[in-house]
C-alpha cells in the first residue's frame, strides 16, 4: 500500500457576492459522488473543479476552484479529495472548516516591540501574522494601493513564512503608524469597520528608550556590526551585546519636542481608530506581565496557548550606559514630565 501522493494546485476566480450574516460558519461543499471519485481515479493526474462558498465578514463569495490532485489508489483518494475540497474552499483543513477567520492588525511604531510581539503571536497554532507588509512604499502610495494590499491579506491570498498549514483562525499583519496609517486614517477605519478587522495597538511609554533603540538601529543599517549584516532583531545574547555596544548621542536641543511628537502621534492614532474594535497594549506591560498575552488571545477569540519567542532584547540595563551624552540628556529632562524615563527599567 504505497502512500497517496496528493499535491493539489488551485486557482480562484470570484464569481458572485451575496450578503450573509457575519461570522457564520462556512457551509461544507457537496462531497464527490462514488462515480465522480471513480472517474478521478482513472488517471494519475485528475482535474478537480468545485464551487466554494467563502465568508468574509458577512459577505459570501463564490469561488471556482480548479486544480490537479495526484493519487495512486481509489480506496484512499475519497477522503483526500473531500478534505482538500474543504481546505480549498475555506483556506482551512477539513477539521477547521467550521471556524470563522478573525482579521486583525498590529498598529505600532518602530522600535516598540512589535517584531517581538509578532513572533509571540505566530507561535500560536491558529495565528498567522504576515509581518510589516507596508514597508514597501508602492503598497501605500495611495488609498487604492492600500485597499488592494489589505484585500490580498484578508482574502487569504497573501503567503509568507507566517502562513500555516494548521487552522489559521486569525489572520493579520503589523502596520507602522508612519506607513500611510495617519494620512489615510478615515478610509482605513472605514475599511476595518466594514470588514470586521480588529486593531491591536502596541505602544511604548518610555519614548526616550524608543529613541535610543531607533538611533542604534539606524546606525547599524550602515555599520552592520554583526558579521557585516544589518539586524533589527537578534536571537542570542552575544548578538545583543554587539548591537548594544554602540552608544548614540542624542540631540538635547530638540529632545523634548521630539519626545512630545512621538507621544502626540500615538494619541492621534488612538483617537482616529476609536470607532474600531481595538485593544491597547504597552511594551513595558508585556515585559513585566505575560498574562496580558491571554487577554490578546481572548480578544482574538482564540484558544489559550503558551506563546514563545526566540528573540533577545538588545538594550538592557540603565540608560546611563546606553547614551553617549548622558549627562547632557539628564540635565535636559530633569524637572520635566519626562524625568521618570531616565531611571525606568524598560
Description:
This protein has helices at 34-40, 74-90, 114-122, 143-154, 177-181, 185-195, 207-223, 237-244, 255-272, 283-288, 292-299, 326-333; strands spanning 9-19, 45-56, 59-70, 102-108, 127-129, 170-176, 197-203, 278-282. It is 36% helix and 18% strand. The chain is globular and about 55 Å long. With 346 residues, the chain is of the alpha/beta class. The protein starts with 8 loop residues before the first strand and ends in a 13-residue tail after the last helix. The longest helix has 18 residues, at 255-272. It folds into two domains: 9-96, no CATH class; 102-342, P-loop containing nucleotide triphosphate hydrolases (Rossmann fold, 3-Layer(aba) Sandwich). Helix 1 packs across helix 2. Mean pLDDT is 78; it is low at 1-97. 27% of the residues are buried. A five-stranded parallel beta sheet has the order 5-6-4-7-8, sandwiched between helices. Strands 1-3-2 form a three-stranded antiparallel beta sheet, with helices on one face.
Topology:
Elements: E1 9-19, H1 34-40, E2 45-56, E3 59-70, H2 74-90, E4 102-108, H3 114-122, E5 127-129, H4 143-154, E6 170-176, H5 177-181, H6 185-195, E7 197-203, H7 207-223, H8 237-244, H9 255-272, E8 278-282, H10 283-288, H11 292-299, H12 326-333
Parallel strand pairs: 4-6, 4-7, 5-6, 7-8
Antiparallel strand pairs: 1-3, 2-3
Helix pairs in contact: 1-2
Organism: Escallonia rubra
Protein name: Sulfotransferase
InterPro entries: Nod_factor_sulfotransferase, P-loop_NTPase
Amino acid at each position: 500500500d504505497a502512500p497517496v501522493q496528493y499535491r493539489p494546485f488551485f486557482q480562484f476566480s470570484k464569481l458572485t457576492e451575496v450578503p450573509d450574516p457575519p461570522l457564520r460558519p462556512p457551509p461544507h461543499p457537496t462531497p464527490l459522488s462514488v462515480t465522480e471519485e471513480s472517474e478521478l481515479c482513472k488517471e494519475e493526474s485528475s482535474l478537480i473543479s468545485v464551487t466554494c462558498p467563502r465568508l468574509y465578514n458577512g459577505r459570501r463569495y463564490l469561488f471556482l476552484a480548479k486544480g490537479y490532485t495526484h493519487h495512486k489508489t481509489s480506496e484512499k483518494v475519497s477522503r483526500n479529495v473531500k478534505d482538500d475540497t474543504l481546505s480549498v474552499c475555506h483556506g482551512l483543513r477539513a477539521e477547521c472548516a467550521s471556524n470563522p477567520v478573525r482579521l486583525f492588525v498590529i498598529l505600532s511604531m518602530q522600535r516598540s516591540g512589535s517584531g517581538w510581539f509578532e513572533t509571540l503571536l505566530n507561535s500560536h497554532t491558529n495565528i498567522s501574522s504576515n509581518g510589516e507588509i507596508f514597508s514597501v512604499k508602492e503598497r501605500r502610495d495611495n488609498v487604492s494601493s492600500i485597499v488592494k494590499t489589505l484585500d490580498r491579506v484578508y482574502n487569504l491570498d497573501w503567503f509568507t513564512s507566517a502562513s500555516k498549514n494548521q487552522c489559521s483562525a486569525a489572520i493579520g499583519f503589523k502596520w507602522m503608524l508612519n506607513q500611510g496609517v495617519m494620512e489615510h486614517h478615515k478610509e482605513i477605519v472605514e475599511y476595518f469597520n466594514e470588514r470586521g478587522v480588529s486593531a491591536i495597538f502596541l505602544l511604548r511609554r518610555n519614548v526616550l528608550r524608543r529613541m535610543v533603540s531607533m538611533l542604534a538601529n539606524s546606525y547599524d543599517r550602515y555599520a552592520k556590526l554583526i558579521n557585516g549584516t544589518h539586524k533589527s532583531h537578534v536571537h542570542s545574547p552575544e548578538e545583543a551585546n554587539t548591537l548594544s555596544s554602540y552608544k548614540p548621542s542624542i540631540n538635547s536641543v530638540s529632545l523634548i519636542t521630539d519626545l512630545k511628537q512621538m507621544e502626540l502621534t500615538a494619541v492621534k492614532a488612538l483617537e482616529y481608530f476609536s470607532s474600531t474594535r481595538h485593544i491597547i497594549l504597552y511594551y513595558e506591560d508585556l515585559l513585566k506581565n505575560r498574562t496580558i498575552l491571554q487577554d490578546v488571545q481572548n480578544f482574538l477569540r482564540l484558544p489559550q496557548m503558551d506563546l514563545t519567542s526566540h528573540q533577545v532584547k538588545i538594550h538592557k540595563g540603565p540608560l546611563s550606559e546606553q547614551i553617549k551624552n548622558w549627562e547632557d540628556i539628564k540635565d535636559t529632562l530633569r524637572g520635566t514630565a519626562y524625568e521618570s524615563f531616565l531611571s525606568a527599567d524598560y
